[in-house]
């Protein structure tokens, strides 16, 4: 009996403590009710339409292009495509039959954060959208743009596009050139403490992520790879990058061109001095001694500025990339970077004049290259062919001979054909 009474007393004390804790928690929640702020979504939508999207808007199309970084027609195309992608970007009503945020409000909030890098709560006054909802809109906008436009805007150049790129570069003095390649660091402010060491390098005193990109003369990004820790350099990023995957598989357009009377069967990229001595990379001359070396170095460094210009335009057009990333998750940071690259390419394509880069290869005299259709060998790949292609990309003798021929070609362009 004594043991039973002691057990009952102990159980009663536990029940009493649990009730006290529950009442204390309930009273704590009752003392701090959830703050409700009335936001007039209908009025905010009407104001946005009257300012930019009505028949006689308050702000001109030029001001729209400045603030949204693109033409109005392209922005409305994105809004329509996202509405078809997910019901999130459609006009919906809540349980009280009240209209929610319109697709224009959601896409405008996401674009303002990308374009200006503003904090999420700074848009509440004009667009009547809360901080948490703004961040949610940005995440959904990024995923929608990647899934809807990513397959087209992030793909490598087709055979026809490669033809135009190579012909334009040949006119600049570099036949067979596919573009210029380099890397850019993006500071990660909210990098987890446990990861800060592997994301921080010696010349960057803050955690960063690296973007590897290949750009053409019209500032289009035809290759991008993002997410490598900032403690790496351009060579380490190249070891992870899928830049040469298609070439190794035999699925990339095969480039055949001649320089200074010699035939070459693989295209190349212009790089800075850190990259390896591969046939696929053509670098400048660090300390030119002769006149022709000096002219070549000036031409190479001038043409290689394409990728530097792209990084500058990307950071200027989307200021969120120029500021330290405030996202906590690496996936979210990568999606924002991908979204900015996709929108950048869409803007480049939208601004391109019709027929500005159309060439008739059969009627243009003096061409020193030809592009056959892409070669595909199916799923059963011959490993010896892969090794041969890899050796051709990394061949140092071909790289040295190619640069010497380019020096002669630029020094005597007429006699080298």
Question: In words, what does this structure look like?
Answer:
It is a single chain. The protein is of the alpha/beta class. The chain folds into two domains: 41-152, no CATH class; 159-329 and 360-411, no CATH class. It contains 15 helices and eight strands. It has helices at residues 2-31, 41-53, 61-68, 72-85, 103-116, 124-127, 131-153, 159-171, 234-240, 245-249, 291-317, 319-322, 330-351, 383-394, 396-411, and strands at residues 177-187, 208-215, 221-229, 256-259, 262-264, 268-270, 281-282, 369-370. The strands form two sheets. Strands 3-2-1-6-7 form a five-stranded mixed β-sheet, sandwiched between helices. Helix 5 (103-116) packs across helix 7 (131-153) and helix 11 (291-317) crosses helix 15 (396-411). The longest helix is centred in the first third of the chain and has 30 residues, at 2-31. It is globular and about 100 Å long. The N and C termini lie far apart (111 Å). Mean pLDDT is 85; it is low at 355-380.
Global Rg? 29 Å
Helix and strand succession?
A: HHHHHHHHEEEHHEEEEHHHEHH
- Helix/strand-derived category reads alpha/beta
Q: Please state how the strands of the largest beta sheet are arranged side by side.
A: 3-2-1-6-7
Strand element count:
8
| Percent of sequence in beta strands | 5-15%
Determine the number of helices (DSSP H or I, runs of at least 4 residues). 15
Intertermini distance:
111 Å
Q: Mean pLDDT score, rounded?
A: 85
For the largest beta-sheet, the strand count, sense and barrel status come to: 5 strands, mixed
Q: Please indicate the count of domains.
A: 2
Low-pLDDT regions:
355-380
Classify the oligomer.
single chain
Tell me the helix content.
40-55%
